[in-house]
Amino acid sequence: MPRSYSRVYKLFLKPLFFLLSPESAHELVIWLLELILKIPGGEWLLRKLWVVESAALEKNVAGLHFINPVGLAAGFDKDAKHIHAMSVLGFGSIEVGTVTPLPQPGNDRPRSFRLPADVALINRMGFNNQGVDVVVNRLRQFERKGLIIGGNIGKNKTTPIENATKDYEICFEKLFDYVDYFVVNVSSPNTPGLRALQEKEPLTQLLVRLQELNHLRPSPKPILLKIAPDLTFTQLDEIAEIVISTGLAGVIATNTTISRAGLKTASGLLEKYGAGGLSGKPLTDRATEIIRYLKSKSQQKFAIIGVGGIHSSKDALHKLDAGADIIQVYTGLIYEGPSLIKKINRAILRAAKTDKKN
Is the domain covering 2-104+127-255+282-357 a CATH 3.90.226.10 domain? Predict the structure, then answer.
């Protein structure tokens, strides 16, 4: 059944959506999904089509219980407006954000571009969001029902880099009661100077401060660090050391890349699109390589969430085999359609049965 729905998406829906700009298509997809949920029986139908329920999919990671290991990466629902709508597609977790203390419009449009030849996207959204207070108000009203919610936090564009820690503190404190885990985003290429926070000294200071705030609470929450795929192995060694020394729960590997190496898209078109983070198929192998490397350096002391270039169940299984505890998708959802989530969950179940037999 997922295969037939995948064919319908690729033959009919995707060509329609791809006639629109990426942001307009995103808005249309969400509008259609929310419309279906308002129709009597709509939610039941969507859950029947997409949700895979099995105790064999459940997983405990970083002290949290996930109903399945396939999550929606940050960026799709920045403002926590569509958590319920996305949950009916079968996700086990949804990460909102990146959230900043104050609302900001992000970079000027157009700021998102498809690269069909590479099955990829370039975006320079720039942390466009309605601010942490709006997100908190929405999360306060949402009923979890087993769904894990992550809060991806960052700094405002106008905040000087030397004052960035305060922005992360504000988001952490305000979101604490409404998310299950936090993600410290210092790896987006679309906020000027942000990636400088991945350097050893400022990163350690930031994470130590957040952990101080975390451990003032009766029940601290998992904090994870989202890293760029452009780090060297020496830098990854430092990241592993910092994560262990600060007691972080884990790493999300990886964010988008600034590299344009090996792309099929014409160089002239790439120049026209300009700067931004690249996601999708070109990241598949690099993200998996980083997951495998970090796993070897983790000393079993931190979890790894794998994300980057997951466009099939095979891609997902490769990341899990490389050492990811759970995974997240975003660009793959755009190119492959919602059946991707069901395909991955079913493939995980099949792999688990095979392992038992062996």
Answer: no
* Crossing angle between the packed helical segments 164-175 and 132-141, to the nearest 10 degrees: 20
Place of tokens 């999904």: 33
Which distant-in-sequence residues (6+ apart) come within 8 Å of 143 by Cβ? Answer: none
Buried b (16+ CB within 10 A) or exposed e, 126-160: bbbbbbbeebbebbeeeeeeebbbbbbbbbbbebe
Q: pLDDT tens across 193-226, in order? A: 767 777 878 889 999 999 999 999 999 999 999 9
Q: For residues 223 and 217, what is the distance between their CA atoms, to the nearest angstrom?
A: 13
Residues annotated as catalytic (active site), given as ranges? 188
For the chain, the domains span: 2-104+127-255+282-357
Q: What phi and psi, each to the nearest 5 degrees, are found at residue 304?
A: -130, 125
Q: What b-and-e string marks burial along 284-308, b requiring 16 or more CB atoms within 10 Å of the CB?
A: bebbbbbbbbbbebbeeebbbbbbb
Q: Which residue type does 183 have?
A: V
* Dist. CA 141–CA 143, nearest whole Å: 7
Question: What pTM was computed for the model?
Answer: 0.94
Tell me the CA distances in angstroms from 278 to 70, 121, 143, 244, 331, one per residue in order.
21, 6, 34, 29, 10
Q: How far is CA 320 from CA 265, 299, 336, in A?
A: 29, 17, 20
Retrieve residue 228's tokens.
């760029």
Distance between CA atoms of residues 3 and 1, nearest Å: 5
Q: What DSSP string describes 289-306? A: HHHHHHHHHSTT-SEEEE
Is residue 192 reached through a cis peptide bond, with omega within 30 degrees of 0 on the bond before it?
no
Residue 216, Cβ density class (10 Å: 0-12 exposed, 13-18 middle, ≥19 buried): exposed
CA distance 45 to 58: 23
Q: E-strand spans in 116-271?
A: 120-123, 148-153, 181-185, 223-227, 250-253
So what's the pLDDT on residue 41?
96
